[in-house]
């Protein structure tokens, strides 16, 4: 797979988001299947793996650490702090320096590593100045426990404030054809500061891969059930939009998921998408998306078809939207 830069690291152009192996999309897959995804991803050319302390309240970091034990030198490891307490027994945003440092200690143990390559502040805790939270992460860099600092779901002004304290290697935010708010300001700020942009949910939380045709089939606990785009008339309107998107993918000679990934990769070389999946076949399909090249005509038609004016519903419900600092 082609490589891209994330701070000092050279990583696969497409990384693996590990969250769904433990968390958020209904019941996690069986352990053997999860390990097939993780180990198969390394064999398929993925060298960038993304987890977090909050995913499964520690389960995901434990899974990654155990499944990839003995192959630590084969991949760049990213994890996150700031949405779970140090003991990892409950969810909650906490950006206090002492909490971030304690969470890191737990992550190192679960991941069975001496150092985390890229450590994100998962959410900005507005009760703590961003300078204080990033300052704590800078101390972890100085102590050799993490190598680089990232931020997740923050705005361009917050990125600039953080970058003034310590260089930020990567900023992670949702970005796909149907979630375009990074184009308002934060992508430009990343280009200006030399920060990699890591795009999570690059296939629209599975929707733009064709993975959600009927919301009634989503498992209890699947957090998409609480997202406006997956509800009622909004879902019906978006489903009609997807059918036209799938037609465009067929015309381009790729799958809908690959169309999303190829579009992101062609937008800018600073972008690294990190699709997640519980299915080994989908993991391989996503990896092949790095080889897809889209014509200018296909790109233009894609962007005219799926954008913030044609997608129905906001990406988050109000309570979740209030927890992020992004533009739009």
From TrEMBL:
Boundaries of every NADP-dependent oxidoreductase domain copy: 13-306
GO CC list: cytoplasm
One function term, GO molecular function aspect: oxidoreductase activity
InterPro entries: AKR, Aldo-Keto_reductase, NAD(P)_OxRdtase_dom_sf, NADP_OxRdtase_dom
Domain of life: Bacteria
Keyword annotations of the record: Oxidoreductase
Pfam families for this protein: Aldo_ket_red (PF00248)
UniProt name for this protein: Aldo/keto reductase
């Amino acid at each position: 797979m082609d490589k891209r830069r994330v701070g000092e690291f050279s990583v696969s152009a497409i990384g693996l988001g590990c969250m769904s192996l433990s968390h958020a999309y209904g019941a996690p897959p069986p352990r053997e299947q999860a390990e097939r995804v993780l180990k198969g991803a390394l064999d398929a050319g993925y060298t960038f793996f993304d987890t977090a302390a909050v995913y499964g309240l520690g389960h995901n970091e434990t899974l990654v650490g155990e499944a990839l034990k003995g192959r630590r030198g084969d991949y760049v490891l990213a994890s996150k702090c700031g949405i779970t307490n140090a003991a990892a027994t409950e969810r909650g945003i906490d950006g206090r320096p002492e909490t971030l440092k304690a969470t890191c200690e737990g992550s190192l143990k679960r991941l069975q590593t001496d150092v985390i390559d890229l450590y994100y502040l998962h959410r900005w805790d507005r009760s703590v100045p961003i300078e204080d939270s990033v300052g704590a992460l800078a101390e972890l860099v100085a102590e050799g426990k993490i190598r680089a600092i990232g931020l997740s779901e923050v705005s361009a002004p917050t990125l600039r404030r953080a970058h003034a304290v310590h260089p930020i290697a990567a900023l992670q935010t949702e970005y796909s054809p149907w979630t375009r708010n990074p184009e308002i300001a934060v992508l430009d700020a990343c280009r200006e500061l030399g920060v990699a942009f890591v795009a999570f949910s690059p296939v629209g939380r599975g929707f733009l891969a064709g993975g959600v045709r009927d919301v009634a089939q989503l498992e209890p606990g699947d957090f998409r059930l609480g997202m406006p785009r997956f509800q009622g008339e909004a879902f019906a309107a978006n489903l009609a939009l997807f059918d036209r998107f799938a037609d465009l993918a067929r015309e381009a000679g790729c799958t809908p998921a690959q169309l999303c990934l190829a579009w992101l990769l062609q937008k800018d070389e600073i972008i690294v998408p990190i699709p997640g999946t519980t299915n080994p076949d989908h993991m391989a399909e996503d990896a092949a998306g790095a080889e897809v090249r889209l014509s200018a005509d296909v790109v233009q038609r894609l962007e005219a078809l799926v954008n913030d004016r044609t997608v129905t519903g906001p990406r988050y419900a109000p309570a979740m939207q209030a927890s992020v600092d992004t533009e739009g």
